Amino acid sequence: MSALTGVQHIALTVTDVDRSVPWYERVLGFAAESRTDRADGRSTVRLRGFGVTLTLVQHPHGAHAPFDEYRPGLDHLTFSVPEAASWPGRLDECGVPYSDTPDGVALRDPDGIRLVLACPAGQ
Questions:
Q1: What is the pTM of this model?
Q2: Which CATH superfamily is domain 10-61+74-118 in?
Q3: Which of 38, 44, 40 is nearest to 57 (CA)?
Q4: Residue 96: which of 17, 9, 22 has the closest Cα?
Q5: What is the pLDDT along the chain (123 residues), one digit of tens a residue?
């Protein structure tokens, strides 16, 4: 068996890619790279930034219930940042509510997916 070599991309299901893509660009600084709209109504947008490829997927018949980290699946997604202290100001400018965590700040995307911006341990 060969070893894992890293993460190829992260895919998150969103209710509206046209709402989520500008949010991820404006708030977190990702850049949209490509978009695919399929005949069945599924839309996929690939974003790049900071060594991470993030794919946002909108399913045509997906549930429109808010994200709930208490259900099996994703609990949260943490992005490494060189220093968390500058993020509260940026989040305030973008009108994004956040809370402090021991390692950085926690916020939610337009669908309520919990994201954390944290410094690597020891910094």
A1: 0.89
A2: 2,3-Dihydroxybiphenyl 1,2-Dioxygenase, domain 1 (3.10.180.10)
A3: 44
A4: 22
A5: 788 878 889 999 999 999 999 999 999 999 999 999 999 989 999 999 988 999 999 998 877 777 888 888 889 999 988 888 889 999 999 999 999 988 899 999 999 999 999 987 644
